[in-house]
Design brief:
Keywords: Ligase. Its EC number is 6.5.1.1. About 30% of the residues lie in helices and about 25% in strands. It contains eight helices and 17 strands. Helix 1 runs antiparallel to helix 3.
Length: about 300
């Protein structure tokens, strides 16, 4: 019999709770649901009002993995949806606005990916993002070195940056911005990526050419485009272990050379403990008063 859970007055059928989604650790679907319920207070504000792209892996990361942007078949009518403008024509997408819709979406087994704008102002950026992606043998340790340079460069323009793990190999930098279109933020981010490459030619790379990436950190500025999405803070990833894209302190970034790459691998139990003890390290991104105009 499929278990029925009542969440905020909504009755939800939760399937296959004993199914192992992460074979390396035996982490089950039930544990995935528990993780998201545990971090919901930190996660939901970063999802709210942002059209959701689902990266689904219903049989675990070794099974079929696929992106879905449109409202999935069978979506309950009480789940909020919105029409989103796209170059190929408008699409109706899901907005995860509350705990009930978060649990419903989690039951589909998905990574959460969101754009750098909210549905009220499509294409008007409220966040800036850099995705720092290391090319082997570089690792997240080298990403941290680039992140520290970018933090200082952004600070020079009055922009305060925050860091989170990608949940995979790299690091994400985020900042709250205002008064600029996604196109303008993309152009600004590309300019800084070019500056980073000039300042650290043996380490940073702004070009997307994969053959150039060995031993370097690709400073991906392109995820600021209105059509692009980035892994939402606190989402689990379709990886060998239940790693999360979760915030880290600048002290942790600065100490990466000592702690090594493993020190910046945050798994579901780690993140639950960190949220329980310290709340959301990215909460300042949600404060409109701290958003900064581009120079």
């Amino acid at each position: 019999m499929t278990p029925i859970a009542e969440v905020e007055g909504r009755r939800l059928a939760l399937s296959n709770l004993e199914k192992v989604l992460y074979p390396a650790t035996g982490f089950t679907k039930g544990e995935v649901l528990h993780y998201y319920a545990s971090v919901a207070d930190a996660l939901l504000p970063h999802l709210r009002d942002r059209p959701l792209s689902f990266l689904r892996y219903p049989d675990g990361p070794d099974g079929q993995v696929f992106f879905a942007k449109n409202v999935p078949p069978g979506t309950p009518e009480w789940v909020t949806t919105a029409e989103v403008p796209r170059s190929e024509g408008p699409a109706r997408m899901v907005l995860v606005q509350d705990l009930a819709s978060l649990v419903w979406a989690t039951n589909l087994v998905t990574e959460f990916h969101t754009p750098q704008w909210v549905i009220q102002e499509p294409g008007q950026a409220d966040r800036l993002v850099f995705d720092l992606d290391p090319g082997a043998p570089a690792s997240v340790v080298e990403c941290c070195e680039v992140a520290l340079w970018l933090r200082e460069r952004l600070a020079g323009d009055g922009i305060e940056a925050y860091a989170k793990t990608s949940g995979a190999k790299g690091l994400h930098l985020l900042a709250a911005v205002r008064g600029a279109s996604s196109q303008e933020v993309t152009e600004y981010a590309k300019r800084l990526a070019v500056e980073a490459e000039r300042a650290m030619p043996g380490l940073a790379l702004h070009r997307m050419t994969r053959s150039l990436r060995a031993g370097k950190v690709f400073v991906d500025w392109s995820q600021n485009a209105a059509r692009k999405t980035t892994a939402t803070p606190y989402t689990l990833r379709a990886a060998a272990e239940p790693t999360a894209s979760a915030p880290v302190t600048w002290d942790e970034v600065e100490g990466a050379g000592v702690s090594g790459a493993e020190g910046l691998v945050l798994r579901a139990p780690d993140v639950m403990a960190r949220v329980r003890e310290g709340g959301d390290l990215l909460a300042p991104l949600l404060d409109e008063g701290r958003a900064t105009p581009l120079p």
